[in-house]
Amino acid sequence: MRSLFIAAILALCLLAPSPSASAKQKTLRITFLDVEGGQATLLVAPSGASMLVDTGWPGFGDRDAKRIADAAKSFGLKQIDYLVITHYHTDHVGGVPQLLKYVKVGSFIDHGPNTENDELAPEGYAAYLAVLGKTKHIVAKPGDRIPVKGLDVEVVSSAGDTITSPVAGGGQPNPECASQPEAPIDPSENAASLGVLVKFGQFRFLDLGDLTKKKELQLVCPNNLLGTVDLFLISHHGFSWSNAKAMVLALHPRVAVNINSATKGGDAESWQIVHDSPGLQDIWALHFADASGDGHNSPKDFIANFGNEADGHAIQATVQPDGTFTVVNSRNNFQKTYKK
């Protein structure tokens, strides 16, 4: 399985410029790694600076850590400069101890103390704290910047708080708020997710981790503080607890990516909301969502993995400063370019 994944990453590298050529061409690379229903999203700026959002699961023979390490190696990275932990559920933070066996981390960034006593959040948080050591550790708040050279990375949510002033290009009244049902309070770590808006030239990418509806709506109602985005990481693996319609329609994404698994996330309700967003061209997904059927999954070329015994195929975006970007499916090398 690992050999197949390495082959897929190498295929992506053949399709796209080498790291040195990428720097000359001023491209941002975003790789959505398959960690089977968790998150591990690697961003490599034209400068060579890197940011990893979450580390997937522990166990499985270090499966997720190895997939991340292989991807980092394919870009010639000597370390992950910034490791952002969105929240402390095991599918997001669990792989940190394993990853550190393979890749050095320059700085850890998170939302601060664990907020939940249910599920496995306390266990994941304890394991995370145990390996921080003397590595630089930053607790980020809404409005903070993560200093990835060549990118503008703004924290828009953290520890249950959200930005209260609009980002550049945001602040417009949101007419969708009037018809949006009130969302329930969520006491879990999901609602504490550290979310980031990444800007590169004219390109904008939004990753809110597993943020749930009530906090999502704070970002877009009554005014849309986030503005519009080019690429949207569908929140919370596509679960219907997240992806409030008033938020998704306000974001007006051109392209969306779902980091679901075959049996986790990819809910039909959320898929339809994203699919119907004005101006949405395509939804790419790490897995075919079995429970949603053909009617609420993208065409096969846009899906990286099928079935529970997946081979770890990734989805990668290569971004130009003018906002043009190309998305590639490493399973079949299918690619599509989206011009601004």
How much helix is in the residues?
A: 10-25%
CATH secondary-structure class: Alpha Beta
Number of domains: 1
Low-confidence stretches: 1-23
Cα Rg:
18 Å
Number of strands: 20
The helix/strand class is alpha/beta
CATH superfamily: Ribonuclease Z/Hydroxyacylglutathione hydrolase-like
SSE succession: HHEEEHEHHEHEEEEEEEHEEHEHEEEEE
Molecular shape: globular
If strands are numbered along the chain, what order do they take across the biggest sheet? 6-5-4-3-2-1-18-19-20
- State mean pLDDT (0 to 100 scale): 92
Terminal residue distance: 37 Å
Biggest β-sheet: count, sense, barrel? 9 strands, mixed
The name of the CATH architecture is: 4-Layer Sandwich
Strand content: 25-35%
Explain what this protein looks like in three dimensions.
The chain is of the alpha/beta class and 340 residues long. It has one domain: Ribonuclease Z/Hydroxyacylglutathione hydrolase-like (Metallo-beta-lactamase, Chain A), CATH 3.60.15.10. The protein has helices spanning 2-15, 19-25, 63-74, 90-93, 96-99, 121-132, 213-220, 245-251, 268-275, and strands spanning 28-32, 41-44, 50-53, 79-84, 104-110, 136-139, 145-146, 152-158, 161-162, 172-173, 195-200, 203-207, 223-224, 231-233, 255-258, 282-287, 303-305, 315-319, 325-329, 335-338. The strands form three sheets. It has a nine-stranded mixed sheet, with helices on one face. It is globular, with a radius of gyration of 18 Å.
